Amino acid sequence: MDLNLLKRRARNEWHISPRGKMRVPGVIYATESLIRDMDEKVYEQVTNVATLPGIVRASYAMPDAHWGYGFPIGGVAAFDPDLGGVVSAGGVGFDISCGVRALRTGLTVEDLQPVKEQLAETLFHRIPAGVGSTGKVHLDRHEMDAMLAGGARWAVGKGYGMHEDLASIEEQGCMAGAKPEWVSDYAKKRQQDEMGTLGSGNHYLEVQQVVQVFDAAVASIFGFREGDIVVSIHCGSRGLGHQIGTEFLKRMAVSAARYHIDLPDRELASAPINSEVGQEYLGAMRAAINCALANRQIITHLVRQAFANLLPQATLSLLYDVSHNTCKVEEHVIDGTPTRLFVHRKGATRAFGPGHPDVPPFLRAVGQPVLIGGTMGTASYVLVGTKESMSLAFGSACHGAGRSMSRHQALRQWQGRDVVKDLAARGILIRSPSFRGVAEEAPGAYKDVSEVVDAADEANLARKVARLAPLVCIKG
Amino acid sequence: MQPPRSETVQGSWEHFPHQADIGVRGIGSTKEVAFESAAHALTAVITDPGSVAPTQSVPIVCEAPDDELLLVDWLNALVYEMATRKMLFSRFAVCFNDHSLHATAWGEPIEVARHQPAVEVKGATYTELSVKRDEQGRWIAQCVVDV
User: Fold this and answer.
1) Whole-number pLDDT of residue B31
2) Are A409 and A445 in contact (CB under 8 A)?
3) Per-10-residue mean pLDDT for chain A, 476 residues long?
4) CB A30 within 8 A of CB A63
5) What is the Cα–Cα distance from A83 to A7, expressed in whole angstroms?
6) Helix, strand or coil for residue A160?
7) What whole-number distance in Å separates Cα of residue B84 and Cα of residue B82?
8) Do A195 and A152 form a contact (C-beta atoms < 8 A)?
9) DSSP state of B44
10) What is the DSSP letter of B2?
11) What are the angstrom distances between the C-alpha of A36 and each of A11, A31, A39, A66, A69?
12) If you measure CA to CA, which chain A residue comes closest to B111?
């Protein structure tokens, strides 16, 4: 991206002044080097989002921002319903409530080492992953609606996990306001075999080691220390979310003119929050959030089963569960007044700071865990929300490394078999049904996750707590 | 090396780059062929279309107010059929009637070991979406798909 398009307001904060139809400025949080590497499309998409009705304060992009659909991936924007604000299906995306869940194991790398290969095989065997994979949980119409209304709470009620898991999930495992009746039969059919499946693309399940702790006090409250083994799960609402995104994108694109919404890009498909289509989308999208929470809860149960035979001493307690493709109703201070806003995070993680009422009581003194997925060959990070983040970007931070290379470029550069072999030589076991999929997800196809996380930390969006290195990775 | 591309009986398809995902483009002497070729490009995101035997047929009907939305609907209908039937498709026949599309897709059930599917497509997007004739009079139908 051309630096001349931006005004630097702080070391890692760059502003785009409102021009044309922009209602608010654009703000990008990133290092100079990340900005230089960002596609010009990110600039275009940040400015396009700034034109939407009812947007408040600014259109934001996180340090991992890259070219998305309508919104940039790594985009954050909030809308005030009293100012004619909109909800955007494009602003949430297809993979509604895609997110990351981390589990503490109570194990060290010494415990893991003797059974690492066996564990990799067992996890690969037990956790359905990849195109065409199906789960063992099949829901009839009644149970589908109960799952869509209840989320992880429904899953725990069905025996997938423990009641105490719920306290460590955003929304305590159940998104309020879900309306299963506004989820189409097509979306429900698409989900009928997909509960408890990882999916493909950048989704994964990893066994990781805590290799570096930056803040021992916060790590202690989060319940881990250097050398500990954790399990991370990255997936979302599967076919149900994809279908809801598809259907409402079209409805909103077609109805935008009726609501006098001038879309600079049809992918920004939006509807007024206080409209019929807006309300129906919110009800369906919240049901998809519950689907994602239930999905990650079922996978957690499968992980616990996989560990039980090989490492019966493993505790597998939930560290936290974050979603990074959502629209949520939150209260934020605008011009000194607490205001109810519809905050869209598209490839951005909520990062509420200490004292926030939505952070569980046992974490409230420090803030919420912010789980950042890296690549299968580099690292993932645990960060913690900050007080400052609330005024910087509605309490948001990055969500991952962000791609630096297209899938084609990656295929040209790497062979899946070689990637698996090279990583095995470094002690990282990859299990995947598709070598082509592995090549497309090669670690070198992503930005340097450490630079992204450092930028978020330096900008005070969230603070670094620990770095996690992969030991086993199940890729879809 | 260029992004993957191939000739079909009457048309051709190719992929074009998107930073996170993949663009699919169908090219043909008619709009029908361009739509069929775009469907080939969609399959090629997932697997080599040549590895998919066209043994089972699935009827597809879509309706949309304009050609561009119709292309997205067509590709999304294929995504839906692939997801719910656990199939891949390699042969397509499309015809138009005003704002509706009537098609048949032929393919077979996914066999992971043989097809090595790289990635599932979540949906067709409106990004880089266009259906138009180029300067040589060829129909071009394209958009980015989310994977």
Assistant:
1) 96
2) yes
3) 95 97 98 93 97 98 92 97 97 96 97 97 95 90 97 98 97 98 97 93 95 98 97 97 96 95 93 98 98 98 96 97 98 96 98 97 97 95 97 97 86 94 97 92 93 97 98 94
4) yes
5) 28
6) coil
7) 6
8) no
9) H
10) P
11) 14, 9, 8, 12, 21
12) A132
Contact criterion met (CB < 8 Å) for A437 and B21: no
- What angle separates helix B31-46 from helix B67-85, to the nearest 10 degrees? 40
Query: What does the domain layout of chain A look like in residue ranges?
Result: 3-404+446-475
Q: Say if B127 is an interface residue toward chain A (CB within 8 Å).
A: yes
Q: How far apart are CA A103 and CA A393, in angstroms?
A: 27
Please report the pLDDT score of residue B1 as a whole number.
47
- Compute chain A's Rg from CA coordinates: 21
To the nearest 10°, the Cα dihedral for A208, A467, A411, A405?
160
Query: For residue B140, what are its two tokens?
Result: 């071009």
Which domains can be identified in chain B, with CATH numbers? 5-146 (3.55.10.10)
Q: Which residues pair with B23 in a beta bridge?
A: B16, B144
- CATH code linked to domain A3-404+446-475: 3.90.1860.10
Q: What is the pLDDT of residue B20?
A: 75
- Exposed, middle or buried, B22 (CB in 10 Å: 0-12/13-18/19+)? buried
Q: Which of B19, B73, B129 sits opposite A67 (nearest CB)?
A: B19
Inter-chain residue contact A408 with B80, CB threshold 8 Å? no
**B107 by DSSP, 3-state: which?**
strand
**Residue whose pair of structure tokens reads 């397509």 in the numeric block:** B92
